[in-house]
Amino acid sequence: MGTKNYKKDEVVKIVAGGEYLGKARIIEVRQIPWKEINRRDVMMEGMKRKKDLEKELKAIYGKFGKNKVFTQIVFEMIGDKNGGGEV
Predict the structure, then answer these.
(1) pLDDT tens across 19-70, in order?
(2) Residue 14: Cβ within 10 Å count
(3) Are 16 and 85 in contact (CB under 8 A)?
(4) Distance of alpha carbon 29 from its chain centroid, rounded?
(5) In this structure, are residues 49 and 42 in contact, taking their beta carbons and an 8 Å threshold?
(6) Stated pTM of the model
(7) What are phi and psi of 73, to 5 degrees?
(8) Are 23 and 82 contacting, i.e. CB atoms less than 8 angstroms apart?
């Protein structure tokens, strides 16, 4: 939630649930107000319905309004958690 300053082609560490998963290269960064999030955006987040995504985001961030901006980061994994090459 909010505006993040990641850049296209930046290499970042991916951590989920406190576990390091590997390295990734950022392909695209988009700042999107909640009211503009569409079906494609929802599906990119692994959900089928916007309502499901909203429920998950509220569980993480708490209540938010339709004008709240989210940063969507699209990336590709380039290294595994053991330091290996392409995944």
Answers:
(1) 999 999 999 999 999 999 999 999 999 999 999 999 999 999 999 999 999 9
(2) 15
(3) no
(4) 9
(5) yes
(6) 0.73
(7) -115, 120
(8) no
Q: What is the pLDDT of residues 43-54, one digit of tens each?
A: 999 999 999 999
* DSSP classification of residue 18: T
- Residue 42 CB neighbours (<10 A): 17
Q: What confidence category does residue 4 fall into, taking pLDDT thresholds of 50, 70 and 90?
A: confident
How many Å apart are CA 32 and CA 61, to the nearest integer?
16
Sole residue written with tokens 């429920």: 55
Based on DSSP, count helices (H) and strands (E) in the chain, helices before strands.
2, 3
**Pairing mode, strands 69-80 and 11-16:** unpaired
